[in-house]
Predict the structure.
Amino acid sequence: MDTHEKFLEGGDTADAVVPGDSAKSELLVRIHLRPIDEGVMPDEGRALKPEEVALLDAWVEAGAKWPKGVTLTERKPEAPKRVALPQKAPGSNIEAAAMLDDILRRENAGTGVVTTQTLNNAAFLRRSTIDLIGRIPTMNEVREYEGWGENRQTKLIAKLTSQPRFADRWTVFMADMLRVRSNVTGGNQLLAYLHGSIEQKKPYDVLVRELISASGRANSNPAVGYILGDDAQPMELAAATSQIFLGVQIGCAMCHDHPFDDWAQKDFYDLAAFFGKTKKMESRRRGGSVYTTEGNEMTVLWPPEDKAEARDRKPVKPRFPFQLGHFEKTPHHIQRFEAVRLSQEQKNSTDDDTASLDALLDAVEPNVGRPIDPVLEEAKKESQKLNVHGDLYRSSELRDQLAQLITDPRNDYFARAFVNRVWAELIGHGFVEPLDNFSDYNGLHHPTTLDFLAQEFIASGYDFRTLIRIITLSDVYRRSALPADTPFELREKSELNFAAAPSRRMLGEVLYDSIVVAGHLGDFKWPKGANNKQVSREIQIATGEFTMVEAGDAEKVTTMAGQPAMRGDGYDLESSLKIDFSSILSSKEQTELVSMREKSDEQIKAEEMAAMQKDEQRKVMKYKTETVTETVDDNPRFDSAMRMATPAPPAHFLRVFGQPARTGLGEFRDEASSLRQQLMMLNGRMTHEASRVGTLEPLHHLLKKDQNLAIDWAYQEILTRLPTPEEKSDARAIVNDDSQGMADLRWALINSNEFRFLP
Amino acid sequence: MSCNDYQINRRRMLKTFSASLLGMPISQLLAQTAPSRAQAEHVILFWNSGGMSHLDTWDPKPGRKVQGEFNPIKTSVDGMEISEIFPQLAKQMHHGALIRSIAGTNGDHGRAQYELQTGFNQSPNIMHPGLGSLVVHEREPLGDLPALVSISGQPARAGYLGQQCEAYFVGRPGQKDPYLAFPEGISHARGMQRLQILEKMNARTSGEKGSKELKASQTALKDAVNLMESPALKAFELEDEDPKTVAKYGDTEFGRGALLARRLVEKGVRFVQVNRGGFDNHGNIFDAMRNHGAAMDPAIASLLSDLKANGMLSKTLVVVLSEFGRTPRINDGGGRDHWARCFSAMMAGGGIKGGSIVGASDEDGMAPAERPVKVSDLHATMCHALGINQDKELFTPQGRPMRVVPKGATPIHELFA
């Protein structure tokens, strides 16, 4: 529909446009339909904005004038304006943060946005603790922070980014980005590997190279979980790799030339070919493991299946469709990057002549006073073994090449895509939205700020913590929210331009852990026996009889075997089952691998047969269900939600609060409020237990002494601030020198929007 | 949960805007394109997990080697026979229709369950919504109760439709949901007092900040309290039900599930899924099916007759479905294995022509002999019954258009009067 003739022609039912009469113009009628209605136009891409619709209406009513010979083309949004980057390299993270603020100020000049005040000290403590270690600060942390004086904010960021919980919280971020699922092969290993990598301060480019190029099986080389997550399918992996690590949705070109972009279908096939020899294998052994290896055949063929006969389809030669930067003189951030890497290598080569990547890693941040990460150790051991048994889990030269190209510091996309995600996580929204759609057709704003951060990230040797420190030490991060009476448009504009803080809600995991901290649920808060109560529940009792169960009759086995009884009170949806990351990779797998190679095929076959026969019929104990009443000491303790199998089961607290299913590419957290969320907060066991004042809590004693002090304490512990005089007088009426009253106050504080939303 | 949208909805804005701008009755224009024969307002889906044998239920093969232990019995419909494990249901079959030629393609539980419940094959990059989530997304909620309720298990997920369209679920029928009332030890009066304190606190924050996210959170809170206080919640409690009625449905978890399903649709719930497991009978299938029959027969038969009696049947689509059938050959352990090539389903009410039989399997129930029905055709049929346009496209949060039913699916038109 790009020329006047085609425009008037329409479809087979009616004229597209009747000049002068918008109501008779089929096209206009369809444009007015809801986007979910049949036949709505446009049928692809975004719906038209009301003002665009109004413009079209007016134009048709006015006679739909179309100058002769004019052909429409897709219009790219104007390239965003850039301002000058600083001339010299920053000497510290604080200096870098100041440069960031300066660039942003210059980019915002003349836009008319309202720049808000920076947060007060207490609010900064709350916001950064929530963001960086995924929970509200404890009372001890509040006190410690107050005592630091002048440079407390800088000191706080340094402390938070070196705490063990930092790795827990940012594993959640990485797990979202990489779509980690505990229930797929290699999922838990990948989770443990990511956690270990963050803990060990592995540079981001090294991490990504490991993910893209890994081969083998998850227990010994956990990074392979990334490849296994997409079943080692070249097409899926090409789409995921470019969208996740480069922020480019080239996957849309899988089936056709990209409708809204300049990617051709062939570009996509060229990229997919890097994964074209990777195969997912299942060990022939019963219950055998899954691993990846490299085949000899290129499975990605061109032209596509639907466009050519099988015999005409030829193997595709891998080609990287993205341009790497060309420079006459190496830019200073790449010089700095090279210097960082060189010094790391030199340091390393004095210890060991055959420097490996892993050794390089250790040199980046020596493990002083830290236990050795078992995940990484296993991975190292395995990579050494790969050289010996190179033929079983063949490593992939193609994926090695691809990993190098993707993580090349001259590849602009790589650092910018990651910076955009981290920025959005901390500031509320990205330079580009959706976060994984960098395109000439998708608006990008504040390009210089983004470039500066990307360059500093590269220059640091892709150090995750440096990136986070620069952002959190800046004034942008410290912005407060606009007052309630700000006009909607001004608010929107100011927030989008990073001049005011948008409303941000805690992640589900963070909310969970914050309730645990606020209510002292991480440890027992009652003495033994203080909460004894009679509980009736159903249990399964062995009858002493046996019955035979066929292999594969899973239904029968599960209904008969003595499963752990449900909690019985219906609160399972708030439980947290902790995974022990360090024990996920069992050493048994290692010995099994070795012994497997020592057996002949006949031996393996014979063992398989024996195993099958053993499993054919199983003796299973019969159980009966009985209701018993017993006395239990209801003194609950809650673990952190950060180390649960992930995603949590459907309808679990975390899922209700937006944890994604991680099944789709480009799936982000659901940030909408829901009725179910409110029900779980209002009536949940966790909020209830968190509100009750345990006799072992400091608050209990304080309340006996002076309720004013107790009220101050409760506010500080839950909201990280003292009550206003008005709030305090309200609180006195609620508490009324009574621990039930205090429980009511705490319940309301934990349920309040102020608790759930970041300051 | 019903799909209430707590955020400002661009599409809704556009709709209002365009309707007023044009000054022409868009609603009329839309009405013309909507299917006219849709009758169903509610759905009760009995989901039988594990792969229910078609030969031992809806498609008996008397006199053949594959027959097994059960004889066919006559039903209230001339020429329609079903397995003897459903004696009461046999008397209700003038309400029901049988589809005996479903040609499935997935013999694996996970993949087949996904396809039967969503209409689509699994894909690594998108999660399709289950039928229940789709229905509550497409139809306005009625009454206070959540629009999608799942009993004794989880239905398919809401997929790209998001958390708002997930099922509200009841672990066991009659079991109290702890989240619908103040926690133990908190009286109603004290709970209401707490809510007042909370309201004052939230009003203060909103007064200072006033973002749309805070407002959405407030709306959700109001809805939650409304639900907690709603008299319709009584529908979940089976204690006050006449013991005779409970007995009529069979005093089993399944029977109570069917009874609860009826009570819920009477209160306006759009979609109820009643889950039952234990159909993966690789061994001793006849004992197992006898037990299944004993639980299912009185429950589904009573449900149909009660819905008919109170006038709800014509607008309630009742579906009995499983992920596949079982092998006609009886294995050495007296069981049957997975069989997707040919299996059956039962549908009743909601405009379905009672007493019909669609398609037929061959003499041993191995393959469809007449009118093969694709799995996606079943979904097209259910959408047709509910007046959901099967060609409609929904958008994922990433803006990717998705059909509600796969391309090429056709409703089974002969099922509708």
User: Anything to note?
Assistant: Residues 532-634 of chain A form one domain. The longest helix of chain A spans residues 332-351. The longest strand of chain A covers residues 532-550.
